[in-house]
C-alpha cells in the first residue's frame, strides 16, 4: 500500500472539492457570517501564506484565544496546514495560567478575539516568545490596543494567497494541535495532537455507531473550540461536508435554542451544564427542535433526569460520550446495542446514562485494587487507555510519569464495567470517598440527587472523619420554586432506599451555585474549602 | 500521541470483548452453523496456534481456496494474527493461473474447501512451495485424497490453544493480506494489503456517508471472500459487531433470497450479475425483503433499470460503489448529498447510477488527453488514485511500472466527473471505442441498452474499421419472453434519440449468454473473438 500520510490539511481539501457549496454559518461579535467551504478554503490558504510571512515555521506554535466562529475554524486548518501547531488556549483560565501556558508552549503568534484583547494587554509584559498579535475582528480599523505588533486578521487576509498549497512535507506523526488541561490543581499540562491522531479520531466520529457525523448534518459545536478542539467536531464536520453552525462569543441558552430552530441543527455537542441551561430555555420558549437527531453530552456525567427530559419531553435523542484532553477526546460512546432495544424503558435509561463502549481504534483496561476488574457492574477501577489518539506524555512536563506508565494512559477516572463492556464513570480517583475501608462514588450520589425534582445541581465531596477516615457531604442547588419547600431531611429520605447505609451523606448543604471549572465541571477543590469554612464557622 | 499500530487482530479482539454474543451464521456444504464472536475468537486463536505449529512464520503466505463461510472468516484473522499473510485465491481462475499464483506467492500452507480438493489434486505436482494442505470440512474423517500432508481443519483445531495471543510485533505496514487480480490478459498480478490499509479501509466502510456498517446490521457478503476480501466487509463487520451471514458454497439466487428473509439481512454486497439473478428470484418467489437497508453494488456498473427495480418495486435502497483489487477496494460510494434530495426522480436516478464521490481518506485525479479533466460531466479521463489503502505496486511484478507512476495508481478506468465530484465509469481505457478521432463509451451504450425492457444483458465492443478506425457492435442477451418479438431494428431505434449519431452501434448481435470473468464482469476479449468469428463465418 502507498505510504501516504494522514494529514489535517487533507480534511479541508476534501471539503473544498466535494462540498464546495456547503456552508459554515458563524456568529461573531458584530454579525452573522455565511461562508461556503470554497470561501473557507481560500481564506484558510490566505491565512497559511500570511502565517508563513509572519515567520511561522514548521513546528512553531500558533496560539488562539477565541470563541467558536469561522476564523477560529480557518486557523484550525491553517496552522497545521503549514506544518505549525494550532495551540488553542482556554480563555477562561486565570491570567496566571494563561501566561504559563503561552510561555510553556512558546507560542510565536497569538490570534485573539477582540473582547479578549484586554486580558492579553494586561499580561503582555510577561509573554516571552510572542512575536505578533492578530485580532480577529470584523471591523475595518484596528482597535486601540497596547499590543505590538498588532495586525488585523482581515487586513492580513487581503494580502494572502488564496491558492497557497498545504505543506507537502508533513509526517503524520508531526504535531498538528495542542491543548492544555484545565488543571484544578497545579499548572496546566500540555497535550500535543498529531496529524495522524486527528484524522483517525475524525474517522471515529463519522462511524454509524458513534456520532455518525455526515454530509447531511447541520452541526453546532457548543463545546468551545478552545477546549480539546471542540471535541474534534470541526475537523470531522469539515471532512464529511456537514453544515457547521458556530454560536460565537458569549452565547446564551436563548441563542442556542434560536440557532437550533433557525438553522435546523441536527447534531450538537456540549457539557451537561450547557444542556441544563438549554433545557430551561426550551421550557420557557416555544422552539422547534425537531431537526435535532443527536445531542452529544460529555465532559461530565449527565444525570438521568436530563437524559429523560430531552428524550421523553422533547423527543431529542441524547447521547453520552466520554473523553479527556489527553484523548483527542472521544473514548466511549453510548448507544444501545441492537439486542438492547428489547429492554424496558428503565433499563434503557440506565444503560444510556452510562458512558458507553469503547470506540473502534482504542484499547482499554480497568485497574482495580487487584488487577483488572471483572465486567460485573460492581468492581471499581481506574480506566486506562491506549491507542493512536491517546497522548503518550504531557508536553515537556515531568508530571508525565504519573499518568503515562507501561504504555497506558491512566485517566484518573474510576469506572465500573457491565457485561456489555459499557463503562460508567463513578468518580475521579481523587474524588472517590474512602469510608471505613470501602469506596463511595461521589458521582453516583450526585446523579441520584439530581434525579430529584427539586434538585438543579448536586456535588458530593469527602470531609475528613476520625472514625471512618472520610465521610460524604452533599452540596445542593435547588430549583427556584423549591427553595422554601424542600430540605435536608427530604433529600436524605430520598437517597436512603437507593444506597447502602454507609453511602448516605452525613449532611446536605444548600448553595446558590456550585463553583465550576472553566469547562463547566464541578470544582470540588474549591467546594471542599467552602464546606470546610462552613463547618468551622458553625463551631 | 501513542505509537500504537493499526492491526487486523485488533478488529477481532474488539468483537470478542464487546460483541461476545453476536453471531456469525455460516452455510457450509453439510450444514448451517451458528457461532458467537466468542466462539469465532477462540477458534481463530486455536487456528493461529496450529498455523504456528505447522511452521508458518512471520511474512509467510497462507493460501485459501474457499467459499464464504465461518472457517474462511477465521483464517482472515488467524493468518495476519500471527504476522503471516492471508492469500485468498480465486477458485474460478484457470488451473494454469492458480498454479502460477500459488507458486508466485510462495504459499506455505493451503486451506481448501472439500469440493475444491479435486482441482488442487490435479495440480499438486506443480506446486513448488506448499508444505501442508488443510481441508475445511465438517466431516469427522479426512476425505480420500492424493494431497499430502493433508490435515482436517477441525481436527487441527482440537489441538489448538483457545487463548493464543495475537502477535505483538506487528508493524502496521506489514502485509496482512494478498489477492491477485483476475486478469483478462496475461498472468494475474498480486496485490499486498497491509494491516494499516485494512484497518483504515474498515473505518471507511463504517462511515455514515458510505456503507455505514454498524452493530445493528445483519450483513451478508455475496461477493466472494476470495475476491478482494469480500470488499473488506468481513473485517469491518467483525470490528463493528455486525451479525454476519455467509451464504457458503455454490449458492443460488434462491438461497440468497431465503437467507435475506430468514436472517433479516440488512446489508448485502455483490456484483450486478448477482443482483440481476436475485431480482429474477424475487419476481418468482414471494420473499419478505423489508429488512434490507442497503444493497451495495460494485465490480461493474449497474444499469439504471436494475437500480430502479430494487428501489421502486421492492423499496430496497441500492447503492453503487466502485473499487478494484488494487484499492482494498472501496474508492467511491454513491449517496445523494443532502441538497440533491430536491432533484426530480429522474435526476436522482441519474446521479445514483453514477459511482459516487471519493470516500474520506483517498485522493483522486482524472487525467484526460490534456491533463486533468474539467468536472463537467463531459470530459473523459483515466481515474488515478492515491491513499493509504491503494496499492503501491504489484507483488514482485515488472508490470508495476505501467500502473504505478508518479506516486499514483492508474486504474485503467475511464470516467467523467460532474460538478459534485461524482464519478461515472464510462469505460476501461482498453475498451473505449475510438471512432473518427472521438471516444465512444461502451459502458454508456450498454447501460442504455439494458434500460430497454427486453434486454437482460448487453456488452458493446469495438471492431476494427478502415474508415473510422473502430466502430461499436452491441452484443445482447434478451429476456426469455422477448426473444421472438424484439430485434435489431427496435433496439437501434431505441438508442438513436439518446446518443450522437456516430455513437449508435453498427450492428446488434444476439447471444444466449455473454462470457464473463470469474468475478462476473463481461469478458470482452473473448466476446471480441466470438464476434470476429461470427463475421468471418458470415463472409
UniProtKB/TrEMBL annotation, chains A, B:
Name of the protein this chain belongs to: Long-chain-fatty-acid--CoA ligase
Domain AMP-dependent synthetase/ligase: residue ranges: 17-395
Domain AMP-binding enzyme C-terminal, chain residue ranges per copy: 444-521
Family: Belongs to the ATP-dependent AMP-binding enzyme family.
UniProt key word Ligase: yes
GO biological process assignments: fatty acid metabolic process
Key words of the record: Fatty acid metabolism, Ligase, Lipid metabolism
Gene name of the record: alkK
SUPFAM superfamilies: Acetyl-CoA synthetase-like (SSF56801)
GO molecular function, one term: ligase activity
NCBIfam families: PRK06187.1 (NF004837)
Originating organism: Lentibacillus populi
